[in-house]
Amino acid sequence: VLQHDLGTSLMFFAMFVSMLYVATGRKSWIVIGFIAFAAGAVAAASIFSHVGSRVDAWLHPFSAAQYNKEYGIFGLASGGLMGTGLGQGHPSITPIANSDYIYAALGEELGLTGLMAILMLYLLIIAAGMITAMKIKDGFGKLLASGLVFTMAFQVFTVVGGITLVIPLTGLTLPYMAAGGSSLIANYMLAALLIVIS
Length: 198
Description:
Blueprint: H1 6-24, H2 28-47, H3 49-59, H4 64-67, H5 73-79, H6 102-135, H7 139-163, H8 181-197
Helix pairs in contact: 1-2, 1-7, 2-3, 5-6, 6-7, 7-8
């Protein structure tokens, strides 16, 4: 939070709440976590100007002020059902197409069908991790596996949700796809740990 990296702090908070739920099985932790998240989101939108502008862009995406800015929504729209084809899109028009908006750039070239296939691959990885977490009898292994899986799930949800305007955009990377060496290494370590645990 002090470094204004609110996407990562959100991921850590979500992982913490989900691991509390796995450890205790009490649904009240999810409710408490959601209330704390809502309070933190309102505070962050008023304290940090970049968060406030992202919330404004999320709430009013087609206002004149927002519509004329560069966003990745147009890349998604021009992709259609089947996309323009690999290498046939215009990722140079999409801002930060190699990291924050990579999902929009892929949506233009692969279309809705390709994006659903990408989400299905993530779902398979996450489901395999959840099955691993449920099979482990050791408490520490169960918490470690579930924490790792929830970390990846929250990353995917946050990035895809931000690009598709389900939630405001945050500064997280899409695992295994977006540029960022530390993110790639961290997610490879995450997968390696899940394989070791399984």
